[in-house]
Design a protein that fits this description.
Layout (H helix, E strand, L loop, with lengths): L1 H34 L2 H6 L1 H5 L10 H28 L2 H5 L4 H36 L7 H32 L1 H6 L5 H4 L2 H38 L10 H23 L1 H44 L13 E2 L5 E6 L3 E5 L5 E3 L3 E8 L5 H6 L3 E8 L3 E6 L7 E8 L4 E4 L4 E7 L5 E6 L4 H6 L3 E6 L2 E8 L2 E6 L2 E4 L4 E5 L3 E6 L3 H5 L6 E6 L3 E6 L8 H5 L4 H6 L6
Antiparallel strand pairs: 1-8, 2-7, 3-6, 3-10, 4-7, 5-6, 8-13, 9-12, 9-16, 10-13, 11-12, 14-19, 15-18, 16-19, 17-18
Helix pairs in contact: 1-6, 1-11, 4-6, 6-10, 7-10
């Protein structure tokens, strides 16, 4: 047994460790997958890069320092990545949710972010240079410089057009000489028209060069002005290699989630968690409900004494005869009598008395017979007069037996668990009736709503702990309700409160006792409760828990 417990404990510990590791791996994988999402990287750029990126309005020196810092951070992360990759085993690198694989994926993303950030800072530096062109002349803005350059361009264009017109006029006045100027240097031949054309062409070439420089300068100034006014933000662009690793990580995490969903231990824990609140409330209800019921019973018990009592047959005959208690109970039988005794109780009889077996005590009251254990009874039939002796069984040596004679018109309210046997006429058996009292305060305080009554003529054999005590009621009598066996039906029955509040609420003491009121009534009770727990076992009736459940119905 110890070995089996050890094996079972080891197996459960391994299963718990495996489940806990799978949970941690799945959680780490989900966290890294979320952290490496391009949208989350863009939102948390300041944390990823270790600071804010400069704007285009920053100085070139500041931008240069940021670029150097980014280069240094990237190099340190690259060194850290190489070290992790070198120290990790091949198996750890193959598992996407292992700690080294997750660290490498995070570092790959950080390195890629830093590379893109360096390119971004380089673009910022270029824009800053463009913007710096607008501030070289503090008193002249980019717009004024552009306007001045556009004026110069227009002037250069007008001069070029004028010089081209003059060249065309010279060529029109001297067509022959103008043709020679295209192949012979005018200075060499000394022709005035050719020298004029050459001067104009040199001026045109110079103006076109200045026009080109001015146009380029205008474009640069316009780009600088646009850079100064246009917002420029960094957005991380994921690359294929990182997305492939993230897809592998997502696939492995899905497999882990599927395994966790199908794991018997995880399902059991999930079921317990889902029902935990219900179980807690159920437990609290199971604990508090009896306490609240007891508190209500304690509060209403005193008032219940004055609210009313239960009287089954107020006018019935109460002249019953009770024999002395002993371990052996002799019963005299006449012709026509029959004795029904529980089979667990030893029975000796006179010669001439025949014994058989009867299924139950009363076919009209099968539940009463079963609850009292009065089934498969020993039946003694009398063809002649004789005597039968019923003895206490060895399983219940502290019990004592007593015979109660019920004359005609007498009635006895009885708790069936104390019944051992009956003596009745074959042609006139004992009558057993049931009476319900749902609207009586005494029934609710006693938690008993059904009362079972045995009517004479006949005899009943009862048992009690160390004896059955018969007490006569002249006016009223108080008794311990847990020792009461029965009482004549003419008495008025009610419950009284004797105990203090907290001892009763926590079940340490009984609420109180029973009060019987009337004239010439008799109350039967057990001398001691020593054999109370053995009543069920000795008689083979209902188990104790079922007996307590059936108590409201008089059993």
């Amino acid at each position: 047994m110890v070995l089996l417990l050890f094996i079972a404990g080891t197996y459960l510990k391994n299963e718990f460790d495996k489940l806990e590791q799978a949970r941690k791996d799945n959680q780490r994988g989900s966290d890294i997958y979320a952290e490496t999402d391009p949208n989350n990287i863009t939102k948390s750029l300041q944390n990823v890069l270790g600071g804010e990126l400069p704007s285009a309005q920053a100085s070139l020196a500041e931008i240069g320092l940021v670029r150097e810092r980014l280069h240094a951070t990237r190099n340190s992360k690259k060194i850290e990545r190489d070290k992790i990759e070198k120290d990790a085993s091949l198996l750890e690198l193959k598992v996407p949710v292992s700690a080294p694989s997750l660290q490498l994926l995070k570092l790959d993303v950080d390195i890629e972010v830093l590379d893109q950030a360096v390119r971004h800072v380089s673009e910022i530096e270029r824009r800053a240079r463009d913007i710096s062109m607008c501030v070289r002349t503090p008193k002249v803005s980019c717009g004024n410089q552009i306007w001045q350059l556009q004026t110069q361009v227009a002037q250069h264009g007008a001069n070029i057009n004028a010089w081209n017109n003059q060249i065309q006029g010279i060529r029109a006045q001297n067509p022959i000489l103008a043709g020679l100027c295209t192949s012979v240097d005018g200075n060499a031949i000394g022709a005035l028209p050719c020298r004029q054309i050459a001067v104009h062409q040199q001026a045109i070439a110079l103006a076109q060069n200045q026009l080109l420089q001015a146009s380029t300068r205008i474009n640069d100034l316009r780009q600088a002005e646009k850079a100064a006014n246009e917002p420029f933000s960094f957005t991380f662009r994921s690359v294929a290699s990182i997305e492939a690793k993230r897809a592998l990580l997502r696939s492995h995490s899905d497999q882990l989630e599927t395994w966790l969903a199908k794991n018997w231990l995880e399902q059991s824990i999930g079921l317990v968690k889902s029902q935990l609140l219900y179980a807690v409330w159920t437990l609290l209800a199971a604990i508090l409900t009896p306490l609240l019921v007891r508190a209500g019973m304690w509060a209403s018990a005193k008032a219940g004494r004055h609210l009313g009592s239960i009287s089954i047959f107020p006018d019935c005959d109460s002249n019953i005869l009770v024999s002395e208690s002993s371990t052996n109970c002799a019963v005299d039988l006449t012709v026509g009598d029959e004795l029904l005794v529980h089979p667990d109780y030893p029975l000796s009889k006179s010669d001439g008395l025949q014994s058989t077996t009867q299924a139950i005590l009363d076919r009209t009251k099968p539940l009463v017979s079963l609850a009292s254990g009065m089934f498969y009874l020993t039946r003694v039939d009398t063809q002649t007069a004789g005597t039968a002796v019923v003895s206490v069984p060895q399983s219940d040596p502290l019990s004592r037996l007593s015979v109660v004679d019920l004359p005609e018109h007498s009635s006895l309210v009885l708790r069936p668990r104390y019944l051992v046997g009956v003596v009745q006429k074959k042609n006139g058996p004992l009558t057993i009736t049931s009476h319900y009292r749902f609207f009586s305060s005494a029934s609710w305080l006693a938690m008993q709503f059904r009362y079972i009554v045995f009517h004479g003529p006949g005899k009943v054999i009862l048992k009690g702990g160390q004896g059955v005590i018969a007490e006569t009621v002249q006016c009223c009598l108080e008794s311990n309700r847990h020792l009461t066996i029965g009482y004549t039906a003419n008495l008025a029955y009610s419950v009284i409160r004797r105990s203090d509040f907290w001892p009763f609420v926590f079940g340490h003491v009984f609420l109180g006792g029973e009060r019987f009121a009337g004239q010439k009534g008799i109350v039967l009770s057990s001398a001691t409760p020593s054999s109370m727990n053995n009543v069920r076992s000795s008689q083979g009736g209902l188990p104790n828990w079922l007996d307590a459940l059936m108590k409201p119905f008089g059993f």
